[in-house]
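S.,

Sequence below, as promised.
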Amino acid sequence: MENQRKIILYIATSLDGYIATEDDSLEWLFKTDGEGDAGYSEFYETVDTILMGRRTYEWIINMEGENFPYKNKDCYVFSKTVSGENENAKFVHEDIVSFVNKLKEAEGKHIWIVGGGELLHFFLKERLVDEFIITIAPTAIGKGIPLFKEAEFEFELTLKDMKRFNQFAQLHYERI
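The prediction came back faster than expected:
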């Protein structure tokens, strides 16, 4: 099916492969001189569905408060403990693979997996991520939450595009 929706990981990482410090700080990211919004707005227009884990959702709520950044999108939060929905998101407590495959087969724009690390690891293991747009900051933070956890599986990608946003390098890959 040629027009099937894709699951896209759009994320920033430190040069040494971390998406946040151990205490969930992104301060290192905001210190880097970018250019505009580093392609975020353009990417955001290509998606209508947001996926994330519960810890990531709670971090966003904690940081943004009432200003939830994905109000105009369908937002699904995968959780083993929370169910139902609120004004921001629907909480998913069912089999992830079948849920995601149903989403991919439905009409719509692409689907953004925002994070976090546990959910992303599961998506990678199950080969659910179709494209990777990874923006690299020229900062090494030494330790923290890794973009890719240690795994018992491999996956291959092909480079689709590269862009520079001042000090950020953005790599766009497709899964083979």
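The radius of gyration is 16 Å.

Coffee later?
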